[in-house]
Every structure is written in structure tokens, then in C-alpha cells.
Amino acid sequence: MSEESAQPYLALKALMMPRDTNPYGTIFGGVLLSYIDQAGAAGVQHVMRSSGWPMQPTVTVGLSGVEFHEAVYVGDVVSFFTEIMRVGRTSITMHVTVEAERDGKTVNLTEAEITYVAVSIDGDERCPIAIRGE
Questions:
Q1: Strands (E), the chain
Q2: What is the pTM assigned to this prediction?
Q3: Which CATH number applies to 3-128: 3.30.565.10, 3.10.129.10, 3.40.50.2300, 3.40.50.2000?
Q4: Which of 20, 31, 115, 127 could bridge across to 62 with cysteines, CB 3.0–4.6 Å?
């Protein structure tokens, strides 16, 4: 892995909108989980490119350690940063940190670990393959 891929990577940035609120006026946790999964996938692609690995499809196989630290509000501009936790033969686990800037301060909102597996796709079949292309 290159040194660049070992640094936190800004994988996604999104403005939180009213359509994504729960009855209490904050953003649904499920909306954040969807963004976290997208950010993790973008982080995996970044790692593949920067490490010189072949670009191949990956699928989400697990999400663990989700912690919601602070509520997310309409109007928050939320940043999703990824870092590599582990690389296996067919999988890569990313840590996703979710932050917003409020009143000039960075607020840690949520974090999670997501595991992705590289796959070959043949019709409806997905078979794990070496993530580094080895």
C-alpha cells in the first residue's frame, strides 16, 4: 500500500436535507449508514488506484462497530473520511469517520467499520477473488 492510501481520505461530502429527517427533526441513522457505505466503497476504490491494484468490483459483506456520537441536523455539511483497517486476501476493512463543522469546530458525528470483498461477476454469481489481483 502506498503512503497516500494510509492517510485519511475524504471520500464523500454531503449537505443534509429536510427529506432525510426523522420525526424528531434530526437525520435518520439509516441515511447516514447509506452514506457511510458509499464513502467506504469510494475509499476502497481510492486504495485500489493508489496501491496499483486492479480495479475490480467489491461488495459490502459486513458493517460493524457503528457508533452514533452526535445528532446530525438539516443543513450540516457532513464529511466522510476513510482509513484502511485491515487487508486480507479477498477483503478490505475500512474505518469511516463522519464529521461536520459547527461554529468553526469539527464535531465527530459517527464512525463505523465496513468490510468489502472483491468479486468476479458472472451473471448473478459473485465469487470472491484476490483483492490485490495476486
A1: 9-15, 58-68, 77-87, 91-102, 105-122, 125-128
A2: 0.91
A3: 3.10.129.10
A4: 115
